[in-house]
């Protein structure tokens, strides 16, 4: 009898280990099948990756060496972009990285794999698994079932084939080993895992999974293009401060956003704003992200009613917060200096839904707050009947 799992992860490199750890954090146990580890080496982790790992509970600050700048040719490229708790590059042994994640692994390469009506059947180390979804970080499924990567850009044409998702080096590979490969791999895993967990738990529809390809492929293509330019034409103009600034942004990945997807566009068409933006490190938001789930942040008296209702209907899935506090029934984010309000542009009556991976699902102006149930339903559903959420006015105090 095969062991039935929601998700089988092929490969125990950074993408596979982070994916399994994140799935577990979001309530889904995955089996990880790993091949032999590669040669040990040090890796450079950049700001956005460190932010995401921190949210996942992996604080590497005291394990490695921090650098506020990196040398590219004759020039020092500054990495401190401000607005992040990690204004530097961290160099750590990759073994340390894996060990910290503490994920159980079937320590054997995949022997066979096939797709069937009930799931993917994967054999490894004498064990057989029946999986609803597969995350292929080793390129194994890719090579066996869909041919090898053909794109000249180094990026796969599609990150999903049926129940199989490709992540990390299996989805994109740069010839430059000192590049961003691990950073992109970790970010892929962080982007995909919570979505898979929500779908496996019946808390989101399969359409949420389409956003993985739509969001991550563009990011990888741009990063690899940036790396290629850096080996050629960009290197020749590094004397220009503006160019060095862009290169710093390429490394830090702090400018990564998901505004370009159809999902984000459809939110904008409904009057929502900022869909796909990275949320700022303000008001203790990053600390709140360490607990899994969505955050719904609102401001002002008119937001209180909806915040309270969402907290009741989506208990444990969407945590409501009132900026500045003032109502005992909704937890407060102090934001005494108004940093979060300013940087997320949340005015009185506005609401902002923060995804579990620290990006904005949307910011909803108070004037169209009645759209909240519709927009929220695209991201997370409750097992109960469609919730009735009605904008109500409440007096603070
Ligand atoms: C010397 C060196 C330095 C680097 N420095 C950096 C850096 O500073 N910053 C950076 O961002 N990137 C760096 N990289 C790139 C980075 O290491 C990779 O991009 C990253 O490891 C990709 O992670 P991954 O999990 O996608 O793939 P991998 O790390 O390749 O993991 C895939 C795993 O799948 C396993 N596997 C293979 N075949 C099978 C099979 N049949 N069945 C099951 N499992 C299988 C492999 O054993 C491996 O453990 C460096 C690479 C090298 C070689």
UniProtKB/TrEMBL annotation:
InterPro entries: FAD-bd, FAD/NAD-bd_sf, RIFMO-like. Its cofactor is FAD. Gene3D superfamilies: 3.40.30.120, FAD/NAD(P)-binding domain. One of its GO terms (molecular function) is oxidoreductase activity, acting on paired donors, with incorporation or reduction of molecular oxygen, NAD(P)H as one donor, and incorporation of one atom of oxygen. The keyword Metal-binding does not apply. The keyword Flavoprotein applies. Residues 5-65, 155-225 form the FAD-binding domain. It comes from the Bacteria. Keywords: FAD, Flavoprotein. PANTHER family: BINDING MONOOXYGENASE, PUTATIVE (JCVI)-RELATED, TRK SYSTEM POTASSIUM UPTAKE PROTEIN. This is FAD-binding domain-containing protein. It comes from Actinorhabdospora filicis.
């Amino acid at each position: 009898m095969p062991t039935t799992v929601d998700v089988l992860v092929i490969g125990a490199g950074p993408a596979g280990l982070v994916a399994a750890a994140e799935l577990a954090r979001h309530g889904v146990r995955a089996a990880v099948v790993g091949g032999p580890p590669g040669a040990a080496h040090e890796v450079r982790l950049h700001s956005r990756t460190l932010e995401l790992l921190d949210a996942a509970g992996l604080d590497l600050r005291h394990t490695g060496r921090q650098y506020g700048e990196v040398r590219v040719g004759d020039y020092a490229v500054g990495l401190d972009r401000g607005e992040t708790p990690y204004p530097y590059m961290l160099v750590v042994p990759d073994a340390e990285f894996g060990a910290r994640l503490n994920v159980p692994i079937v320590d054997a390469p995949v022997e066979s794999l096939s797709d069937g009506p009930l799931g993917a059947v994967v054999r490894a180390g004498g064990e057989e698994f029946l999986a609803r979804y597969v995350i292929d970080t080793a390129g194994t499924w890719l090579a066996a079932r869909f041919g090898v990567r053909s794109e000249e850009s180094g990026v796969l044409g599609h990150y999903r084939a049926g129940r199989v998702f490709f992540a990390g080096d299996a989805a994109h590979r740069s010839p430059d080993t000192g590049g961003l490969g691990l950073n992109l791999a970790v970010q892929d895993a962080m982007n995909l895992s919570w979505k898979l967990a929500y779908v496996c738990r019946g808390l989101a529809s399969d359409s949420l999974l389409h956003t993985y390809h739509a969001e991550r492929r563009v990011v990888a293509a741009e990063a690899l293009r940036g790396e290629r330019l850096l080996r050629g034409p960009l290197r020749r103009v590094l004397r220009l401060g503006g160019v060095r600034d862009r290169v710093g942004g390429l490394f830090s990945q702090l400018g990564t956003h998901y505004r370009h997807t159809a999902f984000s566009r459809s939110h904008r068409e409904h009057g929502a704003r900022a869909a796909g933006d990275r949320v700022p490190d303000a008001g203790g938001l990053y600390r709140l992200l360490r607990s899994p789930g969505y955050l719904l942040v609102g401001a002002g008296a008119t937001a209180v009613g909806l915040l309270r209702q969402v907290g009741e209907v989506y208990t444990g899935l969407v945590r409501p917060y009132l900026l500045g506090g003032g109502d005992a029934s909704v937890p407060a984010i102090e934001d005494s200096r108004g940093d979060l309000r300013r940087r997320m542009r949340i005015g009185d009556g506005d609401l902002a839904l923060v995804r579990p991976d620290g990006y904005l699902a949307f910011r909803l102006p108070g004037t169209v707050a009645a759209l909240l149930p519709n927009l929220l339903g695209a991201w997370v559903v409750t097992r109960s009947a469609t919730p009735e959420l009605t904008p109500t006015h409440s007096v603070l105090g």
